[in-house]
Design a protein that fits this description.
Layout (H helix, E strand, L loop, with lengths): L57 E7 L12 H10 L1 E7 L2 H10 L5 E4 L5 H4 L8 H8 L3 H4 L2 H6 L9 E3 L5 H6 L7 E5 H7 L7 H14 L4 E5 L11 H6 L18 H15 L12 H9 L3 E6 L6 H10 L5 E3 L23 E4 L6 H12 L1 H9 L6 E4 L2 E7 L1 H9 L1 H8 L10 H4 L11 H7 L19 H21 L4 H17 L2 H18 L4
Helix pairs in contact: 4-14, 9-11, 12-13, 14-15, 20-21
């Protein structure tokens, strides 16, 4: 399944404007003017509504604003069970922003709508076209409150005090503390390369330069240093390196800090320039798309890499490891702060990734909220992540938070990935997914990333106050920020490819002036305001 990187999901960049207002009580009484039909079943707050709703011939249209989404329904193990449990047919429709805008222009909005960015006009004005989840839960399925996260509901409240959208992969402070949120970024090296070159210092700029030379001397056919492709922005050489260096996101007074101009980060960019000058960064790395990057990873072409979102590269990493058991990529301490700072690795925060809404146009609001509750529940999460007990998985010693694949399922997953994806679809029905459930089974992730995840776990650092802080789309500030962001992407490449230090410094000075010309100070005023709003929502001073 083709997935875009979360928070950047990352999700490596931070999405724009604060959508939300102050928190309130979770079960606030409905004030919606939308007339909701009465339920056809007895509502019981202690019981999921789908277990009581015996209605037949239910159909919902669900739009996913992602063309890569698998539209099939009822043909695989997972969606067959969803269909059976909910007495529901789902017609999935996929598309891009153009198709989404067409829906809204026509007013013919599907029953459920999933978007991938809380910064869009669709998300920011959800109160004009979607139904409040609290109203739906109160009337049709109060058990929703037992499975939805209060922190997440509060985070997505709009100015009317209601929540209209619910995301997947919304991690709370408790999730980060639990140890069940996996690290996704790491500096990695092939095990055989590490063994062959002897002790090297990958943590300091000069040591890194020397280590790349040592690799080239021993392995002339390899690319000493690789990184995620630039097609989605600044690659893993942007935010990911900054996270690895522990570069702050705010000043001490909680105002926005420009990480791109951080002294420690610039020192490392100068080191990368020297690595490139020595021929140890390939020029192809700046033009390769994601497929080319993965292809080289699959063939072990890179000796070392700064990898962002390693789960998204899991199949490539695993294919290489399976064919070369003693040459797998492992995470090590590399590219560290010259100031003694600890890495502060990112993961999805409260905003999550995909945001799901129930349209005011839905003909079956009861069934729609049941879908949300069902997929958010432990039952729904176990089903979508692991399948059916006894068929694809078993609990270990009766522990409901410890799962292993059945022998038959493990064999299919290992030997026939196509069948695993087509017939089982385990781990792909992700609109309400969450990392904490995947942690029940270590094999939820390919073996190739286990060590990398374990290495980064201690460095995971939530940055909730920095979510959705950019100017409102459509404003002059937003257009200016877009220009600055685009300029930085090309500047970063130019800095690393600069022929000497003088050209490096000149290129950086040009970028600084570009920011000033595009009124970055005014942009930062908005960022500062939104940071303060986020802190208020989080109960921070």
């Amino acid at each position: 399944m083709k997935m875009k990187s979360m928070i950047g999901l990352s999700m490596t960049g931070l999405v724009a404007v604060a959508l939300l207002a102050s928190c309130g009580t979770k079960k606030k009484e409905s004030t919606s003017t939308t007339k909701l039909p009465d339920p056809t079943y007895k509502v019981d707050k202690s019981k999921p509504a789908w277990q009581s709703d015996k209605s037949k011939d239910n159909t919902l249209t669900w739009y996913i604003n992602a063309e890569w989404w698998n539209k099939k329904y009822g043909t695989d193990l997972i969606t067959k069970q969803v269909k059976k449990d909910l007495n529901l047919d789902i017609k999935f429709v996929v598309g891009d922003d153009t198709k989404l805008n067409t829906y809204f222009a026509s007013g013919d909005i599907p029953d459920i709508v999933t978007v991938l960015d809380p910064n869009t006009e669709v998300a920011r004005t959800a109160n004009k076209w979607a139904l409040p989840l609290q109203d739906l839960a109160n009337k049709y399925d109060p058990y929703f409150y037992d499975v939805a996260r209060e922190d997440t509901l509060n985070w997505y409240k709009l100015s009317d005090g209601k929540t209209y959208g619910y995301p997947n992969y919304s991690n709370t402070q408790a999730d980060f503390k639990s140890g069940k949120v996996p690290a996704r970024d790491a500096f990695v090296i092939r095990q055989d390369v590490l063994d062959a070159i002897g002790p090297q210092d990958f943590k300091t700029p000069q040591g890194f330069i020397n280590a790349m030379k040592a690799i080239k001397d021993k392995f002339p056919d390899l690319v000493p240093f690789g990184f995620n492709d630039f097609s989605g922005g600044t690659s893993s050489l942007g935010d990911v390196v900054q996270d690895m260096l522990g570069v702050a996101m705010t000043n001490k007074d909680n105002t926005y800090y420009d990480r791109n101009l951080d002294e420690d980060y610039i020192t490392w960019l100068k080191a990368f320039r020297q690595v490139h000058e020595a021929g140890n960064i390939s020029d192809d790395s700046f033009s390769d798309n994601n497929d080319a990057f993965k292809e080289k990873m699959t063939s072990g072409k890179y000796a070392t890499m700064m990898v962002a979102a390693n789960v998204n590269q899991g199949n490539s990493l695993q294919t290489w490891l399976s064919a070369n058991p003693n040459k797998g990529y492992i995470a090590i301490d590399g590219i560290q702060s010259t100031k003694g700072k600890t890495p502060t690795l990112s993961q999805a925060g409260l905003s999550g990734w995909m945001i799901n809404y129930i349209s005011q146009k839905t003909k079956n609001p009861a069934k729609a909220i049941q879908v949300f509750e069902y997929l958010l529940s432990d039952y729904g999460q176990i089903l979508t992540n692991f399948g059916i007990e006894g068929d694809t998985f078993n609990y270990i010693d009766g522990n409901k938070e410890a799962i292993s694949w059945t022998d038959a399922a493990a064999k299919i997953q290992s030997d026939d990935l196509t069948k695993w994806q087509k017939d089982y679809r385990i781990g792909e029905f992700i609109q309400f997914g969450h990392d904490r459930f995947k942690a029940y089974n270590k094999a939820s992730y390919v073996k190739a990333v286990w060590q990398q995840q374990a290495w980064g776990q201690k460095y995971l650092t939530p940055q909730f106050k920095m979510e959705n802080i950019s100017p409102e789309p459509g404003t002059q500030e937003a257009r200016a920020l877009s220009a600055i962001t685009t300029k930085w992407q090309t500047t970063l490449v130019s800095l690393i490819r600069a022929k000497d230090t003088a050209e490096f410094d000149k290129t950086l000075a040009t970028f600084k002036q570009f920011q000033k010309d595009n009124k970055v100070k005014e942009i930062n005023v908005t960022r500062d305001k939104n940071i303060k709003l986020n802190m208020k929502k989080l109960g921070e001073k």
